[in-house]
Structures are given as structure tokens and as C-alpha cells.
Amino acid sequence: MSRTAIFIAEGFEEIEALTVVDLLRRAEIEIQMVSINGNRTVTGSHGITVQCDTLFEKVDFESLDMIILPGGNPGTKHLDEFAPLKEEIRVFDQQKKYISAICAAPGILGRMGLLKGRKACSYPTTEDQLDGADVQRTETVISDHILTSRGMGTAIAFGLAIIERFQTAEKAESLGHAIVYKQ
What is the model's pTM? Predict the structure, then answer.
């Protein structure tokens, strides 16, 4: 079974995080909701509080197949300021392990220099943070081992693209059909 983790900070975008969690669990892909703030309870940018599965300090990164970063304000800023997470992202990049980011979070990867020479997308007002990327304006972009997406409105497409990475296009399409996505 594939193992993924989505990293949650105060002020995360609820739809972007929870849609991905829901879809991956429906597809039977393991996903841990990981708090970076030392407390399993985290409140999103629109006042929705969630209980994460675990804390950053307890994550076994070697066993993970993908790191997922949701957007949100100030959630993205908090993820970007959390050096231990960025260190793990660098390791994943060096090992060509999967990294996925949506909305403003692809800007973290851009500022880290991980998008140079790759296609990527992000929330329209953060496209200037995709340093060195060939900026696209599609729902999702897969470039090597990095998957990016544009925002809350593309959260389902983002989740289905992750499912396609670990399973098949047919499985992702079947799940999309089951949830009445783009009928």
C-alpha cells in the first residue's frame, strides 16, 4: 500500500487538505494528516478545526511515498517557515520521491529552487513564486516527481491526480465518476 502524508499548519485551506484526504482514503491509499505545530488540533483559514492523525516529530519519512502540501493563508507561510519540513522536501526531491503542492504551496517549492526547468502551476497571484518554472494554467501539472495544482477549485482534480500516480488512470476516473465529478 502506498503511504502519503499531508502537512497541516494553522491557517491551512480546508477544502484543499480535506478533499485530498477524503479521496485518497476512498481509494485506499494511506494518508496521514500531520500537524507541524506540536498539537494534533489545527484550525484552518476559515475557522474549521481538525484533529490530525499525528505530529511532525512522529513521522517516518523513509516509509512515505509522497509529501503533500495544501495551500491557505497563513497556512502556506507557516509551512514555508518550518525548516524541518523543508529539509524533508529536499531529501524527497533528491531521491525523486513524489512531492505534491496546491494553491500557494507550489511557491514553497519554487523558492526552494525545485521547479527550475519544470512545468508547474499555482494560485494565480503566486505564479511569480514558481522560480524557474514553465508556468501552466491547467488544473494540475505533473513534471517528473512533482505534482502542482492551482487552488480550492482544483482540489478534486489534484486528489485524483495523486490517485492516478499510485494506482491507475482508470481507478482515478472511476472514483471521479463515483463522486459525480465532471460527468
Answer: 0.98
